[in-house]
Amino acid sequence: MKQKAKLLLITFLFLPLCVLAQRQVTVKGKVIEAETNEPLPGVTILVEKSTRGVTTDMDGTFEIRVSTSDKLVFSFVGMQSQTIEVGDKTYLEVSMYPLADELDEVTIVAFGKQKKESVISSIETVNTKELHVPSSNLTTAFSGRIAGMISYQTSGEPGQDNADFFIRGITSFGTGKVNPLILIDNVEVSTHDLSRLHPDDIQSFSILKDATATALYGARGANGVILVTTKEGKEGKVKVSLRFENSFSTPTQEIEMADPITYMQLANEAALTRNPLAPMPYSNNKIENTILGLNPYVYPTVDWMDMLTKDVAVNQRANMNISGGGKVARYYIAGSFSQDNGILKVDKRNNFNNNIDLKKILIRSNVNINLTPSTEAIIRVHGTFDDYSGPISGGSDLYRKILRVSPVRFPAYFEPDENLTGVQHILFGGQEDAPYMNPYAEMVKGYREESKTVLLVQMELKQDFGQWVEGLTGRLLGNTTRNSGFDLSRSYNPFYYEVGQYDRINNKYLLTELNPDSGTEYLNYIPGYKSVSSSFYAEGSVAYNRKFNKHGVSGMLVGIMRNLLVGNASSLIQSLPARNLGLSGRFTYDYDDRYLTEFNFGYNGSEKFDKGHRWGFFPSFGVGWVVSNEPFWKTLNTNPFISKLKFRGTYGLVGNDEIGSDRFFYLSEVAIGGGGGFTTGYDFGKGRTGVRVGNYPNSEIGWEIAYKTNLGIEIGLFDNKMEILADLYKEERTNILQSRADIPTSMGLWATPLVNVGKASGKGIDVSVDYNHSINKNTWVTGRANFTYARSIYKYYEEPDLSEIPWTSRIGNPISQQRGYVAERLFIDEADVNNSPRQDFGEYGPGDIKYKDINGDNIINEIDRVPIGYPTTPEINYGFGISAGYKSFDASCFFSGSARSSFWIDAATMSPFVQSSSGGRILETGLAKFIADNYWSEGSQNPFATWPRLSNYLISNNLQRSTMFMRDGNFLRLKSVELGYSLPTAITRRMHLESCRFYLSGTNLLLFSKFDLWDVEMGGNGLGYPLQRVYNIGLNLSF
Predict the structure, then answer these.
(1) Residue of 196, 308, 318, 344 lying closest to 247 (CA atoms)
(2) What percent of the chain shows pLDDT beyond 70?
(3) Which of 12, 15, 789, 795 would you call most buried, defined as having the most Cβ atoms within 10 angstroms of its Cβ?
(4) What are the residues whose beta carbons fall under 8 Å from the beta carbon of 581, sequence distance 6 or more?
(5) With 70 as the cut, is the pLDDT of residue 336 above it?
(6) Helix/strand/coil percentages in the chain, nearest 5
(7) What 3-state DSSP class applies to 714?
(8) CA gap 76, 712 in Å, rounded
(9) Higher model confidence: residue 377 or residue 100?
């Protein structure tokens, strides 16, 4: 009894102390963002192990009544959660840090993700911010930004401005596919689909380059893989992001034409220098009256470039995305609109727009649903809708026509004379004695409309089997894609006029109508192509990933099936469904994150080959060593200058069945009664056609195979602020499909048999350097540089026996390198011509091109053709740039360049004063200024002039592919510049915005190159629609 009394007394005495220890207090405080010191509204503050809590207000402040023994949990979307003990604290100031971006810690690989540290394959991950350029075509951002990719752009025409791009160059020379496989959310798409993808919708963008990286895609990945994943919704409040851009585009450079007076004077010289007795095309009277500036309709001096084009085009782009969701369902919904206009003029007398007008609408919906705690369904819907309106023949064709017309033969159009004041149509200039092409009439006489639709619906099901087998997951995916398109043209037949009478005293003229019976004032309707296709893709996979102490193991098996059906196909064979089947696998093992191994395989079937070659097995393996994870590394590397060091190597085989246009190589293609068939009989004066063999069967044709080796090193410096990735690779490509070159014509074969005999070899290096550093809370700087060298040569090429003339062989020379003649100079005079080897190309004389006699037989012919210049596809791409920010301001610039490529000026197209026929109209080539400035003349006799002796007809001798018109494709370009300003958080919160950023940007701003006739990046396409320099203003809002 006494003991109980003592216990009660002690309890009574210590009870106030316990109550004191757990007393209720009011805690006030403020939550800020650590990097900006700005207040964070909406932060959730919960008492640990309870549902009781509060949120911060617009100023980031809070107040909560808690016990001194409680713990407070601070959480906010995108920030690291924090837990703080209350104790005796009554005021808390909490700094929250952003979550580490998952993509900074992992690498997107085929059908999944891997820890960045454990990746052995050669994979380039592109920061999606690098892809933000003021363009509605994503591919225009590639050049110089991606290590391992060769990319360049040859046209700036809206809708035709896709960049060409190849992963590690081109290592095949057959008629098959050389472009990489493009996958968006694991589904194969076209370059057109990739170009329409908006950067704001991209979650990750990766380039898979070696055999282990692409193995799981089997035969589809022989030329590398571009792997894109789109954004998905995250649990949290609704987020809305808006982006608006308005840009102004103008040509980077246009070819300059000579003035009209020089044109006439040199046209006369061109006629007389070849034939002194020829009449002069332009009389002295016409030249003098033109110089005096008399009536411009009678003595026209037309600047066709200025007549057809304007200086600036205005374009608009807008994008909106909404994301959010809860624990059960999450969503990401996006829509984009863009309008790209051309730089062609519109005649206000027409009631339609002949200028280029390309409108694009994109929609995307990604919805994730947790059906059970272990089962997730993802439904993706994506659609692109293109509506194009523009000139009937296209923008590039019109640009070429500017060069194919005389500036003095007639005006673009006439003002009505006193007898034609009531006409309703445009009075286009023409000439009665010959139907010369009027490019202005060609441009404004009508327009072409085109519509394209791509609709994709996908469902993916993910299952976590961890409750039964830890680390085991499964996946099913089904996708259907519908493509459709059509075009049509509407045009009238122009009325052409010329000056019939001219009263010089009163400066009046009367017009003569040239085609009163064929001209029309209404628009005809001309239907064009119609296309429709449907594809279905199914994929199933099972994966296992476990860590046993220091041992990490993973495995994956993937099966795929694809079916493609094309409507309105061009032939019976093409109308048949195309199918692909494949099984692939990946198995990895690592020990203590130091030693890495990986094995992959692809087992694929192709309907193109006979049963004996239909299936192919393509294995690959790789090893890696993370030196910086070794225990001895910390001992040796006391100064953490090198914070990461990793070596890796891979080797493997990859197959390719897209080696030609034939569907079934093992079957004959025979046409009965077709054109070109053999006559088998004579029936009462009528021939009877027999059969024509379009393709001879070859059951031995099989897979093109690439043997790929890759060695890589990864280095992190300054606590990984700087990362360097370098890869050295080699590829041997065999079984390239070619036509037999040793089949004599006496065999009478209609088609040349195809065989797998070609071989090629490729090698190169790609390097990327990234630097990221936050100097302090207000200042940051990033830098990036990359370099790609990719060289491919012929190892074996099917050609006749060239042992006696080995310099004409392709073997050992780069793929896409051209063959031609070595131009020594221009002939000086007749004596020079007579004392030089004979040239077997027709007429030539003083001022024409003199070629080198390679074999010394005193004759210039086919035997003297040798490989000349660099390949037409650049062997080197590189880029470097820097970005920096201070408080609310940011700025960036990026340079891109290209080297080791050659292109040719088209001598036939550019030869001035030459007439030719096209579409019932006569084309007459104009005079480029660079020709007028430096050509061979009888007065100068300059053997090193830029252009040969003039002529008003084509001189075959001067049209041969040679070094005379070869130019170097090297350049360095200021690719992009951007200046931005973000409103301070204090202001945006009062505006109920999460962020608000204004920015000015530009692309293709400066170009450095020895070539100055047109934008050198266009290469031999320089007479087409020019690349565009773009100035852009944009606004990005999120709330």
Answers:
(1) 318
(2) 93
(3) 789
(4) 560, 561, 604, 605
(5) yes
(6) 15, 50, 35
(7) strand
(8) 39
(9) 377
- Is residue 228 in a domain? yes
Tokens of 647: 């070596």
Instruction: Assess if residue 811 is contained within a domain.
Output: no
pLDDT tens-place string over residues 9-50: 444 444 444 444 457 899 999 888 776 667 788 788 989 888
The DSSP output letter for 663 is S
Average pLDDT on 615-639 reads 89
Do 481 and 454 touch, CB atoms closer than 8 A? Answer: yes
Same domain, 288 and 203: no
Could you tell me if 75 and 97 are in contact, meaning their C-beta atoms sit under 8 angstroms apart? no
In terms of domains, do 142 and 267 share one?
Answer: no
State the burial class of residue 348 (Cβ atoms within 10 Å of its Cβ: 0-12, 13-18, 19+): exposed
| pLDDT score, position 104 | 58
User: What is the token pair recorded at 809?
Assistant: 């062989």
Task: Compute the average pLDDT of residues 119-139.
Answer: 93
Q: Which of 44, 62, 96 delimits the end of a domain?
A: 96
The predicted pLDDT at position 419 comes to: 81
Asked whether residue 887 is assigned to any structural domain, the reply reads: no
What is the residue type of 358?
Answer: L
If you average pLDDT over residues 188-213, what whole number do you get?
A: 95
Domain identity same for 72 and 129 = no
Residue 40 sits in a domain whose CATH number is 2.60.40.1120
Provide the β-strand partners of residue 328: none
pTM for the model? 0.89
Given this model, what pLDDT does residue 100 score?
A: 56
Domain boundaries, position 51: 20-96
How many whole angstroms from its chain centre is CA 235? 34
Find, among 127, 133, 145, the residue nearest to 896 by Cα: 145
Pairing relationship of beta strands 866-871 and 889-899 according to DSSP bridges: unpaired
Angle at CA of residue 432, ends 427 and 433, nearest 5°? 155
- Identify how many contiguous H helices and E strands the chain contains and give both numbers: 15, 56
Structure token pair of residue 907 = 């001598």
Mean pLDDT of 44-58: 85
Instruction: Quote the pLDDT of residue 1017.
Output: 97
User: Taking Cα atoms as reference points, which of 979, 958, 966 lies closest to residue 1016?
Assistant: 966
Q: Choose one of 195, 217, 235: the last residue of a domain.
A: 235
